[in-house]
Amino acid sequence: MKNQEIAQILYEIGYFLEMEEVKFKPFAYQKAAIILDDMAKDIEAIYKQGGQKSLEKIPGVGKNIAKKIAEYIETGKIGYYEKLKAKMPVKIEELTAVEGIGPKTIKSLYEHLDIKDLQDLKKAAEKHKIRGLPGFQKKTEENILQGIAFLEKSRGRFLLGDILPQVKEILKKLKALKEVKQINVAGSTRRMKETIGDVDILIVSKKPQPVMDFFVSMQGVEKIWAKGNTRSSIRMKQGFDCDLRVVREKSYGSALQYFTGCKEHNIATRKIAIGKGLKLNEYGIFQGQKMIAGKTEKEVYRILGMDWIEPELRENQGEIKASLEGKLPKLIIYRNIKGDLHCHSNWSDGNNTIEEMAGTAIRMGYQYLGITEHTKFLKIDNGLDEKRLAQQRKEINNLNKKFQVSSFLPTGQAGKFQILHGAETNILNNGSIDINDKALKELDYAIAGIHSNFKMPKQQMTERIIKAIKNPYIHIIAHPTGRILQKRDRYECDFEKILRTAKEFGKILEINAQPRRLDLNDQYIRRAKEMGVKMVINSDAHNISHLKFMELGIAQARRGWAEKKDILNTQSLSSILKLFHR
Ligand code: DGT
Ligand code: CA
Ligand code: CA
């Protein structure tokens, strides 16, 4: 599929135009890029079927951009992009991966220091050549070095959200082969860790050769590292590696247990086996020479005197003890979620209308969808002020009337679905909110989050967030620690104090399910649960396909030992309404 390749070029055209301070156009390119990036349908197939006209039907793709996409599919190039790139031959994707580096910075660094890629940037920063440039300070240079260090730390790992759809696709294809008797993903992907080193797949097959043939010649395979009868290893075009192992049916459970990990979890389980005079490895559990179990994971754990442990818990963080004592948590399950309380429409920086977002939410079986646009402080994201919030309320009321008519709902659940009107407001430097109380009061509920000034001193940041928690019109704190995976660390704040305040004032913390955020992380979720602080899991969707990020957030909640009762959007519409209208 060429969707991602083309999306990347469109992003870059947007960046180039932004460097030249062209108005509006950069936004149009970026918007089209996001849509293409997330689109499940193959853009090439759409074009081959219906030509340029069918490309223009894709939301966000106008005539001009459609022409360029067609050019790429026909020739493998976009002339307009090549021209822009020839003028300024910089590696945009590499440079913008560094926190704080945007198009204007790239332009300036190229013009003054001939910086073209990450290596150039690092060298220049280390030699302190950046701090003297107009508009750059010592601090900027330090931040750049910090950003590069952060990036290097995460090199070679991939976001779960980026690769999970493809892993599911691979599993589906392999499962369909008649030679495959059993199949499961193992490793960090099965544990749903937020980043993945490589993907490990296990199968049972009596005739592995055709399976291996198929595996190494699948669409999207870039390199074949190894191909054998019991193991093959490939690199996918997106850059990640994928291993396929064939194991014996009688060893499938112990192999799955072994290759699911994590390593420390395995070491701990092996110790328990030794304590019982047994031997545990990927082939089975042995008493002397005799194999006594191995076919299923359940049986492996049972012989060790343990309850079966959900893969998301297998991080050697106390799950072994809990399992031995029969005290494992009853984790929230993927079907427990009844609605999503954080998403954006084209009223601010989203790509779809409220109606389109709600339609998808209904098809997902939700009872409610909270529309929470950015607010006025975030001008670049087209944040809403009090007046536009009031206008939006009217539209939402009208749509809700429409949703009351049962024939409109594909599920026929008249009156069971409601759009809630919220907002994702900004916590300003002093802890106040960028929307006045009167407008906040009109909303069904309000979210507040930090979107600026991440580098405040710890105490000041803590006070800033605490003030927002105490604000009677704020119900939820969005992405509470502010981390961006592979880009920036969480901001400094006293999280324990934030938890105590949230508990005292009955406020909710968000588990933001965006693949790059997953914030709260597992450890903070677990701490919140221990403190009795309630949470919600939100997709923070900016278009209809983002709503499915919910799965990543649920995985994170499970990794944080959260149960259904800890997560409030497992509750029905009427309970949620009661909660907010207290
Ligand atoms: P990743 O790929 O870095 O995201 O993380 P994993 O957990 O998928 O690790 P990987 O792919 O190196 O190995 C898959 C599993 O195999 C791992 O979770 C546990 C098991 N494993 C690998 N190496 C060892 C080892 O040296 N000792 C033990 N006990 N288990 C291991
Ligand atoms: Ca792995
Ligand atoms: Ca591996």
What is the topological layout?
Layout: H1 3-19, H2 25-38, H3 43-56, H4 63-75, H5 79-87, H6 92-96, H7 103-113, H8 118-126, H9 138-153, E1 158-159, H10 160-175, E2 182-186, H11 187-190, E3 195-196, E4 199-204, H12 208-216, E5 221-227, E6 231-236, E7 241-247, H13 252-260, H14 263-275, E8 279-281, E9 284-287, E10 290-293, H15 297-303, H16 319-324, E11 339-343, H17 354-363, E12 368-374, H18 386-404, E13 418-426, H19 437-442, E14 447-449, H20 458-470, E15 476-477, H21 495-505, E16 508-512, H22 522-531, E17 535-538, H23 550-559, H24 573-580
Helix pairs in contact: 1-2, 1-5, 1-7, 3-4, 8-9, 13-15, 20-21, 21-22, 22-23
Bound molecules: 2'-deoxyguanosine-5'-triphosphate (DGT) and calcium ion (CA) (2 copies).
2'-deoxyguanosine-5'-triphosphate (DGT) is lined by residues 187-188, 196-198, 200, 258-259, 261-263, 266-267.
Query: How many angstroms separate the termini?
Result: 50 Å
Low-confidence stretches: none
Output the strand order for the largest sheet: 11-12-13-14-15-16-17
| Gross geometry | globular
Number of DSSP strands?
Answer: 17
Approximate strand percentage:
5-15%
Bound molecules: 2'-deoxyguanosine-5'-triphosphate, calcium ion
CATH class of the largest domain: Alpha Beta
Q: What is the assigned CATH homologous superfamily of the largest domain?
A: Metal-dependent hydrolases
Mean of all residue-level pLDDT scores: 93
**Count of helical segments?**
24
Q: How much helix, percentage-wise, in residues?
A: 40-55%
The main β sheet shows up as: 7 strands, parallel
Number of domains: 4
Category by helix and strand content: alpha/beta
